[in-house]
Amino acid sequence: MKIAVIGAVAAGTSAAAKARRTNKDAEIVIFEKGRDISYAGCGLPYYISGVTPSRYNVVMNTAQDFEEKYKVDVRLEHEVTEIDSDEKILYYQNLVNGKEGGYEFDKLIIATGAAPIKPPFEGIDLENIFTLRSVESADQIKDAVKRDDVKRAVIIGAGLIGLEMAESFSELGMDVTVIELEDQVLPPFSKEMAGLVEDHLKEKGVELILGDGVDHFEGEGKVAKVVTGSGREIEADLALLSIGVKANSKLAEAAGIEVGDTGAIKVNEKLETNIKGIYAVGDCAESKDLLTNKDVWVPLGSTANKQGRTAGENAAGGEAKHYGILKTGITKVFDLTVAKTGLDLEEAEAEGINAAAVKVKAHNHASYYPGTDDIHLRGIFDRKNGVIVGAEVIGGDGSDKRIDVLAAAIYNRMTANELFQVDLAYAPPFSGPKDAVAILGMVAEKKL
Amino acid sequence: MKIAVIGAVAAGTSAAAKARRTNKDAEIVIFEKGRDISYAGCGLPYYISGVTPSRYNVVMNTAQDFEEKYKVDVRLEHEVTEIDSDEKILYYQNLVNGKEGGYEFDKLIIATGAAPIKPPFEGIDLENIFTLRSVESADQIKDAVKRDDVKRAVIIGAGLIGLEMAESFSELGMDVTVIELEDQVLPPFSKEMAGLVEDHLKEKGVELILGDGVDHFEGEGKVAKVVTGSGREIEADLALLSIGVKANSKLAEAAGIEVGDTGAIKVNEKLETNIKGIYAVGDCAESKDLLTNKDVWVPLGSTANKQGRTAGENAAGGEAKHYGILKTGITKVFDLTVAKTGLDLEEAEAEGINAAAVKVKAHNHASYYPGTDDIHLRGIFDRKNGVIVGAEVIGGDGSDKRIDVLAAAIYNRMTANELFQVDLAYAPPFSGPKDAVAILGMVAEKKL
Q: Which residues belong to any copy of the Pyridine nucleotide-disulphide oxidoreductase dimerisation domain (chains A, B) (predicted)?
């Protein structure tokens, strides 16, 4: 049995590792275009700020370590150029010496990831305009910051990565401006909750320009200015584009593998594509929304790991499923934890749910124990039966706990009353006698 | 409508407050034997150590505040001496002036709490031998520590409160010895998990004497020595008995109210006793084990609050239920979080479950983000269907999150596979791409 994996970041390496654990004898080969494997993409903002001190920390495995540990052949700087899905051969080019070759496989796992969107703005090719995706791109940013003594950074896009980088650049002592086309930060969040994040960013000295986008960049050789659609000019020593990513699905599409409306590869619960024996996982693949049963594309490291594991087991002869996702996401924005799971109000209504949004403010733990902080919770409930279908949590320490409990609640179709009933752990350092989740349930029950 | 409440700590005040919110017009009277209301019993170890600086912090409401806020008549230092459940009258004594009186009620909520067990050891009445229950008892301990320059504290009983006080006394600079009759600390925990706590206590300089109990106390006026059953003599300037509590159910029992085998008052889902219109809540009342459907007695602040609220609503004319508990408990022991929910292996087996214990060690969050710590998880699974029925979590920051997610999982009868499926939030400061809970699920699935 020969298993080929294209891509060696989270999903690809998870897949290869699990395939090996499932099948001791299979030949497993990973083809990776870049020079690093198994790096922690989510850790790059912390690598750039220095919170995570060394490159070694975010590159979890070297190819050699991985090869030894899992008896997998890792071919770095090998770009797969074509998949022949009928003949089950992939063709690649060695980027170092230009040589081409082919590899016959029995099973193939596509983990080609996603790439940052980089629109053809005027001036986009000026120096010090970056996107952040690979460790190499992080290294380039770190080099530029050091080399050019960057004082003013402009971040385009106020999504998760944009805001993580606002913190990262601030920690490096830069003046940071964030530009967002929508009229709020974190567009997937409700306006009322996003407002809390906006206030926090301003407190931390980040300048926000909302409802405005990039028109073009100016500078001589290096970027010096970002000019917005409304004509505003912002001086910049460095600009970071973080306006989203698109799935790397072209290679698969050219091989007759079905791509969904999301632009990512369609898969079933086994992570198999429309072609038997060919799987797709991670940021290039769709997933199922557990609440709407629709195919969705929410590229996140947690999903990539699970999909990789599942496909690796299946490719190696096992039987595993990944049911889908709640689109749970979390980030740290300076001192705030910002998290979301399930449906928002608009999504719920689009599903025909008579939905109500309920917002409460609670404490992370007993007020008399040091380190008390506010936690804001917003739940989306189905008025018909009181079931919670979505939540946002923004606040201090302990917010991550509440989003995870709510994710479990949503997964299990719990009602507002059950949020009160479930017996969560109480001691003063950890919660109040009525946990924030119970309080959300109580208030929701009353309101519904 | 006249509602009487006996007891003004967590359950009694919750009941009175909710009764008022449910019924604007009812006359509500609370009879409280002591001088404080609504104090945070769980906060007393932190009040003693000074982590919680002032008495004001743990006494959440003064009687006057509470009276004004809820239009409730709070009668402090009024001990209820008899309940006439036929005539619906309670008799009380004013402890200040000795006067007696009666109060006719339509509905009665009994929240008489629990009292520390204090066996008739020889020397038990020596000075500086304490139990910890009320703010007054905490004040007495604080006074003794200050007055007598206490250097050596002996704690009898290694349950939750005993270990919290070991930390508290250590923070005050004392040498602390803990004596426990069982051969492990935290007897409800499995031996392997309790061992982690024992190691941690020793690291922190606490001396542990396991499998040994108090025989008698020695001293002249004040305690000077604790002598154990095995004949060991431990010098002590102060001794704290924390070997458990018993429900204060005598008053109810004398009124014909049914008391269970646990020694606490039997109640239904509405928190009503066998006598219509008379409710019992908090540490004097039983609860239902959600997993075994048996009546259990696990006196905890979280349950007291929920029961109080539920009974308050019902007494005032509403319709509320408290389904029961998972016996979820948590405590902080120095730098360790120690938590348990659901059934342990022995309890599961006693229920006829073919149970398996699965232990994993995981990280609280990404290894490259500062503050990484170990979390040990032990799940009890039903081999028949893979359902998780119990869990223990011991470790660093983030352990509280995992016990709460597992409590939600147990509440919802989730399987090991579902612990992997549920879409928990991932970002480097909060978890790994595969959360500790998912790892427990994966390992359990493989083992079962």
A: 331-431
